[in-house]
Amino acid sequence: MNAVIFDGELRIEKVPKPLFKKGEVLIKVTKAGICNTDLEIIRGYIPGFKGIPGHEFIGIVEEADDDSLIGKRCTAEINCACGACEYCKNGLSRHCPERTVLGIINRNGAFAEYVSVPEENVVIIPESIPDNRAIFIEPLAAALEILEQVKIEKDAKVLLLGDGKLGLLIGYVLPSTGCDVTVIGKHRKKLSLLENYNVKTVLLNDFIDSKFDIVIEATGNPSAFNKALLNVKPRGTVILKSTYEGGFDFNPSSVVVNEITIIGSRCGRFSDAIDFLCKYEVPLEKLISKEMLLKDAIEAFEYSAEPDTLKVTLNVNK
Ligand SMILES: [Zn+2]
Ligand SMILES: [Zn+2]
After folding, report:
1. What's the pLDDT tens digit per position in 16-27?
2. The domain spanning residue 165 has which CATH number?
3. Do 259 and 290 share a domain, yes or no?
């Protein structure tokens, strides 16, 4: 099969199709999305990564122990856990220290014609969700993780920093709580995608610092952390969604003096994302900047890294 390979260098190569293994499900990939984590991988930010990247995808089950799965349209939870440790037993398999992660840690991902995942990771996509929304299930789950970690009250004032792919998804999710949302970004065009979503949008240069109950940092830029601290009320909460290489200077005094709660937030439950997509008409397909083919993956990665690009998808098996 054709696959995108990264082992220090990115290329497209013919590799053996994964063999069907008991307990796993073999999926014929239809579409895969390029995410910032993939860009980090090819920039070498995930040390030791070798293999097929790609963790946002949809496909059709081709082989499985359970016959009823065959032919179903699905995606898969990306954390493949041991099932036996303390975290797994408490429903926190996303934090299993033994886990492999699809296309990220020690497991081949979905930028290929086929991908194999543990059967318990497979998530069937309801028919009412079109492909171009379903491709966002993984990052949407990450956006919804915030609501699992923090109870956002109706009268809360929430500031969201960032108008990238994840920022916009969070911008679509927050109004479901009824809270008052302000989104700051650098791109008028990206912010315009949140029009009619009960959120206020402001360009960074026009924003006047003020105080919010909750500030969510999703810019992917280390300098935004101090901006978040500057705009959170005493006893307020700062939620961090960005991961980036390297650190930055930070004086913890204001966190101590103002008794700020800082919460790190990563992946969420796919079932929450699916419920959300069934309940709300959210035009996530507008976040797709370009649909390309697997064979053009190298250009797709380059295009994806441009500042004005949102989601780039790779159509596979077409
Ligand atoms: Zn991702
Ligand atoms: Zn475990």
Report:
1. 999 999 999 999
2. 3.40.50.720
3. no
